[in-house]
Specification:
Strand order of the largest sheet: 3-2-1-4-5-6-7
Structural class: alpha/beta
Radius of gyration: 18 Å
Number of strands: 7
Number of helices: 8
Largest sheet: 7 strands, parallel
Shape: globular
Order of helices and strands: EHEHEHEHEHEHHEH
Helix content: 40-55%
Strand content: 5-15%
Amino acid sequence: MQEFAGKTAVVTGAASGMGLSMSRRFAAEGMNVVLADIEEAALRTQVALLEREGCAVLGVTVDTMQRADLEQLRDRAVDRFGNIHILCNNAGVTGLDDAVGVIGGVNMTWDVPQHTWEWVMGVNFWGVLYGIQAFVPHMLAHGEAGHIVNTSSLAGLLPGGSAYSVSKHAVLALTEGLYQQFEHIGANLSASALCPGVVRTNLHRAERNRPEDLGERLMDVSAEMAETIEGFMATALDPEDIAELVLFAIREKRCYILPHVDEDDSIRGRTEHVLGRRAPFPVAL
């Protein structure tokens, strides 16, 4: 996809972090942007800011765990702007009771509560799949150039037994399949898996959006975990840098978006193990 002005992008998890930066970057290219997020107040704030800047924007409150919400998002986007050209399935969560390396979690796979598995897989994997199911038939039908960006993670490329890691491995596999399928049928579409490490986002505060029926919201963290999070955030990439890489990958039809080049050796180490060669096993996420 080379032409962006006048086209339309839909981004989930768009009220903050990478989703907001991607939305703003698309708007800077002259695109219509549809921001979707579960946090209604934050969404309204960002939509109002973009409108004041003269952007063509629509905000839609969406729970990506609900397929009907993604279908409604598609319908509202089409009603407002016509054909959709870019879909970024970006919404994601992690639980403080999950074994998530990026925030210092320590729970073992077998200790993570069932409701946390359901929440994390529901948003991180099923939300991506629902987005694909809702939007891809429309994008194939109109035949114009388009692209799907699914947010996986560096955790999707490294070993790990957390619900977060498993969900991100699933997103990576799903995206690789989508990329191959588009190539196979000669579609005017392509797909990318975004696989960042630590980025300056609100992911570590995702508990605020945990549904009440999927476990208690664990809002308090230990002093040790708070210090760990602070340390990670100090070295995190800026979401605006991620957005720039996403735009480049769309232009170049790149399947993989790997922002953290300093982690290449970790990815290489896992691949060496897959091939049965002796190499230091990479640190699990």
